[in-house]
Structures are given as C-alpha cells and as structure tokens.
Queue: 2 jobs
Job 1
Amino acid sequence: MTIYTSTFPDVELTDKTVTQRVFEGIDPDMAILIDGPSGREVTGAQFIGGVKSLAGGLTARNWGAGKVLALMAPNIPEYCMVFHASAWAGGTVTTINPTYTAHEVNHQLKDADADVLVTIAMFADTAKEAIKGTDVTEIVIIGDAPEGMVPLSELMGPPMEEQCPVDVVDHVVALPYSSGTTGLPKGVMLTHQNLVVNIDQSLVPADVGEKELTVAFLPFFHIYGLQVLQNIYLAGGGGLVTMPRFDLEMYLKLVCDYKTARLWIVPPVALALAKHPLVDSYDLSHVIQINSAAAPLGADVAEAMGQRLGTSATQGYGMTELSPVSHISPYGKGKPGASGVNISNTESRIVNPETLEDMAPGEDGELWVRGPQVMKGYLNNPQATAETIVEDGWLRTGDIAHFDEDGYLYITDRLKELVKYKGFQVAPAELEAELLTHPAIADAAVIGKPDDEAGELPMAFVVAAPGQSAPTLEEVQAYLEDRLAHYKQVRVLEAVDEIPKSASGKILRRFLRDRIGA
Ligand code: 4UV
C-alpha cells in the first residue's frame, strides 16, 4: 500500500460544536457579515446575540434539538445566523439550492425528513408548493412574510445562552446533498467534529488574516460556500461580504471597495477574470491570492488570469463528503495544474479502480482519502455508504489523479458519473429518471460534454419510444423546465437507436464520451 501523508502537523480533535468553534474566532466589534448590495452590516456581537436568540425561538417552537431545518436562501447575513442557530439548538440543517423547482425541494424535504422550511419571500410560492405531502407544516420567511407564513423576527426568543449538548462525533449538524460517485443526490451526514476539524485543518495552510474580508458569492447551500467561506472565515477571525447571486460587475466592485486579499472562486469565474473586458476597469492590485476549486481549472485560463491580475492562481480539491477540504495549495506555494497537498490529518492513496491495488508513484488511478473530515455516511443509504467508505475508513472519491514527487495532487479525469456545470453538481441519474418520464422517450443516458465556459454541459442521448420520433432539444427543455433547476437543464441532445449498456444493464458512459470525442 502506498500512502501519501501530510507534511503539516496534525490538528487535535476537540469536543467543540461548529458554532462554539466559529464563536471563538469572532471579534464582537467587527462587522463580520456585510450584505454586499446594500452595505448593511452585522457585527460579531449582533451575530452571536442573533444566533442565541433564534436558537431560543427555534427551541420554543420545537424546531431545535433533534429536528431538521431546511434552509433555502441566497447568500445573505441571516443565512449564517439561521445555520448556527439550528446548530446551537441541537438541530440539523439541510441546505437547499434556492433555484430548485418545487418538485426538487419537495424531494429533499421528504428525503431529509425536514420539520421546518426557512426561506425568503421571493421563494414563498415554491416553498408552499414544495411542502405538500411532507412533514413541514410551517414556512419561515427571512424578512417580511406573506400571509400564513412566519417571519423570522417572530422566532427571536429569549436567548439560549449555552450550546444544546450534542455528541459531536455522532450528531449530524449539516445535511447537504451530493450524488457522490453514482445515482441520485443523497443526504451527506456531516457531524460537528467533521466541520470543526476541517476548519482547523484548513486554517493551518489557508492563512486567513485577522479581520480579513472576502466576497462570498459561492452559494452557502454548497459545501464550498458553507465551510470555506462561512465557517472558516468566521472561525479564522475574518468576515464576509455576501452576494445573493453572482454578478461580475458587482463582484469586482465589492472586491475593490473592501480591498479583499483573497478570492475564492470556481473555474467559470476564473475565465471571466482572465478574459472579460470589465476587469480592466478595476484596480485589483491588492489581491494576493486566487483560489479555485470544485471543478478542473484549465492551465491556459489559470495562466491568463494570473498574468492579468498579477498573482498566481492556486487550486484546492474537495468534495461534499470530505467536509469538504482534503487538499490545499498553501499560500505562495501553488503549482500549475496541481490541486494542492494533503492537509493535516489527511492521507491519500491512488488505487487501480478495477484491481484495487495501489498504483506506482506518479501513475494515474482513483484517489482515495482518509481523515477525520470523512463524512459519517449517506442518510438512510447504508449501501451507498458502504460502496463509498471502504475498509479502514478510506473514502473513494471517484476522481482519477496522481501525485508528483513533492506530494502535489493532479486531478486528471473523473471516473464517476457526476457532471459539473459551472462547479454545480448535476447527477446524470437524476436527469435520466426525469427524461424517462417523457412519453416519447424509451431510454436515456446523460454525460458531461466539455465546454470552455461551463466546464461541462449536461448532454442527453435519447431513444425514441416505439412508433414515435425522438423529441427535439427544445421540447425536452420545455418538458424539464418545471421539474429541474435551470443549471441541470439538458443543453445538448442526440437521438440514438440504443443506449450502450453492460451485461448487467449499467450505462457504458465511456462509449458515449468516446462518441463525442470527450
Ligand atoms: O461534492 P462537490 O460538489 O464538492 C466540491 C467541493 C470543492 C471544494 C470546496 C472547498 C475547497 O477548499 C476545495 O478545495 C474544494 O466541489 O464536488 C466534488 C467533486 O468536484 C470535483 C471532483 O470531481 C470532486 O469529486 N472537483 C473538486 N475540486 C476539484 C475538482 C479540482 N480542484 N479539480 C478538479 N475537480
């Protein structure tokens, strides 16, 4: 067995909850959360007071200890308050993409067994539709609530001064959804200890400066935004300027106004920073580090962005199931094309996915990761858990990679089904299931088609039902519109006579990728 270890000192496992850990880093007098569009500020003291008071209110309504709170909101300061109030009160937060359709929200509410849904007025209609047939009886609205819904302000109760006691090793505090290596999106059970240790592991090399601000446009519902921005910045003594949705001009303006040292981005934003004419109108010379993750960053784009902004682009690697960070490029020590080195307490192997034997150093194979940040498992899915976390606690990532002689990780391919559209997860199995409900489609398969801007586009191969002609791309898009969020939409379609499958009925995606030269 060839195990790649970390060169960083181990961090200690503690019995702190994630909110206790985050509170430790907070300066009460600093504006730690700033709403980007309005400039509204929340100080550390206001944040802590708000979390405790909301935790009291959640507990009074029986939405605290042991309960699941579904949070479906864009990045606004209250997002962080709701997340930590639930954690402080002993609850679990399942994070929902606010661009989801009612159909998708309904599925997650049921799967996660949510007790209450917190959202904003803009999504009230979706929320109302989505709670039908679920255990959620009330919708809480951040801001002014439409009739029949509860305004968040009404929940502010007498403060709960102490953390509700929980077993930090076992209690699931966050339940984001990920499809992992195969199948439909699943609830990823992350414990307090998972999140706390990943904060501490990341802060060893990540070097967030005291009182340092960054602009948080990466959505908090995804683990990258939730942990790297929300929790690591706050625990590290920094703060966030929140953006409810990405807009390049506003992003550049906020980065300049708040003189943020570090940018946390995904590859499509790197492309914009490298190529978009708007960038020339802003002085970004104060930026010292740009870190991209969540999807492969092309070498040309990284180089062009670095040159234009006068800094180098580095990459990190992670996965929802890893809380999410396992590899980071230490500040000033990135390598072109590399996704970083093992962080503290983290081991990696490169394994032949067929024979399960370790590959020779430098050779490509499946990346396996072990460390205290590995999830507890998938919710209500012991089989998927057992297929993903194998003996001795190794997590199979489904990514193909190798290490160089200095211990830097290079992701070179993806073994798993997952499609990444602008860094967002699109699960082929989910699209295939929806496509199969179309009356003119007899069979379907979805893969990612390489694309310069989005990274990959969801591409569908469809077989027409007997006696019918296959639907066109436009027809399929119109059909899926009410069922799937915009980013999961099929962008390319090809009608075929049959879907290539193995003897056991598994779609042979490699054949389809070869067919389009991907
Ligand atoms: O589960 P997920 O959607 O999770 C993420 C998390 C990425 C993060 C977050 C915080 C970090 O500090 C950090 O370094 C990375 O995206 O998707 C996981 C899959 O995304 C692909 C890969 O296929 C993972 O299994 N991916 C993530 N990072 C990279 C990547 C990368 N640097 N290069 C290529 N693919």
Note: The domain at 419-517 is CATH 3.30.300.30 (GMP Synthetase; Chain A, domain 3).
Job 2
Amino acid sequence: MALLTPDDLRDINKQLQEADSIVRRVTGLDIKGICKTLYGTSPNSEKIGIVPVTAGNGIIKNFSASLHAITQYFGFDSFVTDMSDVSGYYEAVRSGADIILMADDHTFLAHNLKNGKIANNQPSTGIIYAEIASRNQKTDSKDVLVVGLGKVGFPGAVHLVHKGFRVYGYDTDKTLLKRAVSSLGIIPFDIESPKRFSTIFEATPCANTIPETLLSENCVLSTPGIPCAISEELRLKYNVQLVMEPLGIGTASMLYSVL
Ligand code: NAD
Ligand code: 2YJ
Ligand code: MG
C-alpha cells in the first residue's frame, strides 16, 4: 500500500486549482460539476469532522491539514479535531460533525452519520477519474485504455463498462487481468501493441507505465496513480491533457457519494 508523503501534498490548494482547470478544459465541467452529475447530490451545510489517526505508520504531516483545505475548497464547513483516534472521533461527534473523514494505512473513509452512508477512497477515486476520462470532449471514440486494475483501477473499469465504453485493460499481474477480463468482459491489452488511444485511465503506483506508442496528440490521461504514468517529455511532446492530483478529487468523490 503506497502511502502519501507530505511532499505529495505540498501546496494542495494550488494543485487542486490546477487540476480543476484541466478538468474543465477536458470535460466542460469543474470537479464539483462532475461530482453533482455523478452522484446527483449537492452539499447542504454538512459539517465535516477530520480525525487524525496515529495507527500503523502514524500521522502524515499535512494530511489532515490538506483534507481541511480540500473540504473548504469544495465549500464544506470543516474542522480538524485536536485529539486523534478514538478521542478525536468522540470530539468530532460531540462538536456536531455530520460527516467523519479519517484514514489509517489501509482505509480512508467518509462516513455520513446522518444518513448512514459510507465511502472508501479507493473505489471513489477510481470512479471519479474514470468519469473524467469518459467525458473527454475532444473525441467520439468509445475506446478507453485502463492501466492498473487494482483497488482503484478495477472500480474505474467497472464504471467505464457500465457507461458503455469499449474498455481495453492491462495489468502486470496476470491474475488480476484475467479476473477483470472474465468478470467485466473487457479486452485484454498487450502493452506492446501499437494502438494509440485518445483516452487513458491509469491507476498504478509506478512511473512510466504508458509507453509512447499508446499516446495520441492531445490525448486525455486521467490518473490518480502516483508517481506520474508518463514523463514530462512525453507530456509535452503529445500535449497530453493530464488530470493528476494526489488527494482532493478522490476526496470530493467520497463526500458527494455520501450526501
Ligand atoms: P493496487 O496495488 O491495489 O493496484 C495497483 C495495480 O497496478 C496492481 O494491480 C499492479 O499489479 C498494477 N501495476 C503495477 N505496475 C504496473 C504497470 N507497470 N503496468 C500495469 N499495471 C501495473 O493500488 P491502488 O490502491 O489501486 O492504488 C493505485 C495508485 O493510486 C497508487 O499509486 C495509490 O497511491 C494511488 N491513489 C491515488 C489517489 C488520489 O487521490 N490521487 C487515491 C487513492 C490511490
Ligand atoms: O491521519 C493521518 O495523518 C494518517 N493516518 C493518514 C493515513 C493516510 N492513508 C493513506 O494514505 C493510505 N494510502 C490509505 C488511503 C488510501 C488512499 N490513497
Ligand atoms: Mg485525487
């Protein structure tokens, strides 16, 4: 399980603003607009309690502060508890939180205490990055390549199949690839074949997972995967429309899904 680092979260407001403007250029909607159409929900003065968690590898510097900045960016009323863990959870509920946000090394959840809905960061992230990819305004093609079919990529692939896309999938783990092919009917993709795509969704923890032979001019690469799936050189060479941000887009998806 790849953990976020304080460095990934540096200047989260700026990263979110930049991601928002690319999402707008690619889809015609901003991140809020994507969330509203995806889940059919809108915020209604919900108060969000962010609880730092010390379990496992412990507090990630900037994590709770970044969630605070992200929730404020999306217009939510939010606060970080002074206490951590169980005491922090108690503090959040006693201070009137409607929604709890908290993460250990394995699970990052949003739990709406008012309606009982709960969201997990990994599928929520896969679904929203897949949704952004599916809204590529610059193409009529129904072909989408999904690279990485794990906890984030698989739910994203499911979403694209449900939306009627012709989904090509690739994962270095052949068992995972077989599972996705048999359960979703996606097309197993040979990463060495020279087919160029206008839309790619990538969710792996590795760098340089997309070879040049798959890129087309102005293609959309929607990727929550850290580090980046392509080099800066390839991004510039193909004018790749890169949607990549470390925490905010996935968090927005979680929050709107529990409203
Ligand atoms: P995971 O381990 O469940 O899945 C990753 C998959 O990628 C695995 O199935 C693995 O076999 C595959 N893979 C590795 N190298 C590959 C390669 N070169 N080509 C094709 N497939 C390859 O991990 P996950 O939970 O799905 O997370 C994926 C990435 O998304 C991680 O980097 C994680 O940190 C990141 N993430 C980002 C956000 C965000 O908001 N930006 C949120 C959640 C997760
Ligand atoms: O409260 C804290 O500061 C820490 N306990 C946060 C831990 C954050 N967890 C992760 O980054 C894990 N990868 C699990 C979340 C999956 C989303 N990337
Ligand atoms: Mg994100």
Note: The first helix runs from residue 12 to 27.
